[in-house]
Amino acid sequence: xxxxxxxxxxxxxxxxxxxxxxxxxxxxxxxxxxxxxxxxxxxxxxxxxxxxxxxxxxxxxxxxxxxxxxxxxxxxxxxxxxxxxxxxxxxxxxxxxxxxxxxxxxxxxxxxxxxxxxxxxxxxxxxxxxxxxxxxxxxxxxxxx
Length: 145
Known about the structure:
By secondary structure, this protein is of the alpha+beta class. It has 2 helices and 7 strands; from the N terminus they run αβββββββα. It has helices spanning 5-31, 122-133, and strands at 36-44, 50-59, 63-68, 78-81, 85-93, 103-110, 115-121. This is DUF2550 family protein.
């Protein structure tokens, strides 16, 4: 049996369309979760290279979850427990966007001594600060209870 080139091209095209639809569906699914905002995270790559990666961060009751943009993974690639965050520092970077919002570099200090750097909108940084301050008593290291 011989298959013709148009049939093979049609099958390959259909697979590309299905893969694209799956990627878009994953992005829509993640972006519609509660507590999700756009951010850029500084991370080390697989081969030791470092750089900024675009993604979405989500607040849950006990952790921050970071999802890389345009990824096949449904689960978050980075999880930061609320009880692991010791402190945060913020600094405004750049100028206002066309939408009129500043961007903020937030550096989270973790219990293990690691630091997580995230660039996000000022409104998202304020929400992050409120999330950190709203932790139940005793959950955060150094609480007075």
